[in-house]
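agent> call fold_tool(seq_1)
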Amino acid sequence: MSEKRLLPGELDSHLTRRGPLFAAVWLFFLLDPLRHGWAERDTLAGVLGMLATVAFGAVYMLSWLRLRRDRQQLVPRPSIQAAILWFLGLVALGVVMVLCLGEVGTASTVYISVLAVMLFPARVALALVLADAVLVVVLGEVMAGWGSGAGLAFAICAAAVAMFGIQQMMLRNLALISAHEENARLAVDNERGRFARDLHDILGHSLTVITVKAELAKKLMDVDAVRARAEIDDLERLARDALADVRRAVEGYRELSLPGELARARTALAAAEIEAELPNSADDVPSEWRELFAWTIREGITNVIRHSHATRCTVVLQRNCVEIRDDGRGAADPGVGHGLTGLRERASTLNGTVVTRSLDPGFSLSVVVP
């Protein structure tokens, strides 16, 4: 039979559900103070001792429930002010139990040490537990008729150590849950960034080409109706292609075809009346770099058409490098732009480098991979 394994969140949920039951079971040791108080119920000390014992158990359980709620909200410990109030409240009730019931009231000291471990950092809790154990030993020596407090001091230390181990496991679970939530948040942020980058690259290129063709069709309307109609047909095709690209981006499909981008570049440059010098084949480029080079060509050609006012554009494609050069007016600040930022992010995943250079005249964009 296979063993069921729990995820960190499920494990923490099991622990937090069982925590109050675990705490309630150990209230069994408060039965002795209650029994002693009942035996002395005819006295004010006996009545007060019973009331203090019941209140002590209630405060102890409420503290567990408060810590359970905090863990569900991924809060490791309450604020220092709340911790001090809980601890002092339990100590005050424990003092009343000892004053009213005598030695049997010292059963409260074990619970006080356990609560100290739950509420305070390790160093503070250690000091409080040691002080509690020493106090029990001293009371056993100085109070007439009381037995040795060594056994109770050992119980105090053992309970504190056990609670410390349980708490460390809970804190590790909380850290794991927080890490999982942070990873999930980062994954969502990365996906949003990817989608925004892809949408910019896809629509930026397509809308630029559509705009250029629309302007050309408008100019040809009264001069060459046949060619104008052909340009309008291309506009319809490009719009449909852009819609298909957006749908693929939404579906998470990001792979581009390097030959397809070269063909698109040829069409787009011709529509913009820019002389194109493009490679006829992309066979030398390894498959793992083809998508990056395709994005580079898309971004570079878009920028040439949109910004350069060039008359000629050259794409140089090598095994580990792609370069787009033009003879336009260059760029005032080549490092600025969402397209280049996205391209740098893509290149970095393959340890590639994006290089921009101003030429005389013109501008060069290239990506080099090792």
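agent> call fold_tool(seq_2)
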Amino acid sequence: MDKQLVELNSVSKRYGDRVILDGVDLTLHPGDRLAIVGPSGSGKSTLLNVIGLLDQPDAGTYTIDGTPTEGMSENAKAALRSKAIGFIFQLHHLLPQLSVLENVTFPAHALAVKPNWSDIEARGRDLLDKVGLKDQESKFPAQLSGGERQRVAVVRALINQPKLLLADEPTGALDRANADSLTDLLLELNESEGIALVVVTHDAAIAKAVGSVVEIQNGKLESL
């Protein structure tokens, strides 16, 4: 079996007196995919933030790609995040003053080891082609539809060749047709790029399409 990519052991998180995560255990391997569902405020996004090194658990341990994160400095977390993790959010957060290609290659600036920029741009163009946005690289976000902007955000998340893609309600701002199209795209990329995919969603159709589903209730995960 492949080595573990994500390993959470007895991870807990609280805000004040409120327990958000209560002894969560979760293991993912390269290429896995998982949908996380649950009521609003149940801790779905908090769990994703812990996995994405954006939030620190109060108890328990988290290891990603063989690297324990306990006691890691913020700079070390940022470097690991840039290299190993891609993020997609409900809102695309594209920079309006940058072209499509400039937006998708922007995360490469954060890599600790500076890449060959012509290689980065070539990867960006290849991914744009893969998501159906060939010849759109010179356009600006305002010139694209909502579905197209979210596809650009997907490419941006993949530009550094991460091993893990985290998507927090990625279809929440899209209509049904675009939501289904984006879901299909994420699953295709999970297969073709060999990247592990974790999707937080309230959409039952998306969770069903992902296949492996866990629900967070009272701070704990239950398989569905």
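agent> summarizing second result for user.
The helical segments are 44-51, 74-84, 100-105, 117-130, 146-158, 176-192, 204-210. Residues 34-40+74-223 form a domain with the Rossmann fold fold (CATH 3.40.50.300).
agent> awaiting next instruction.
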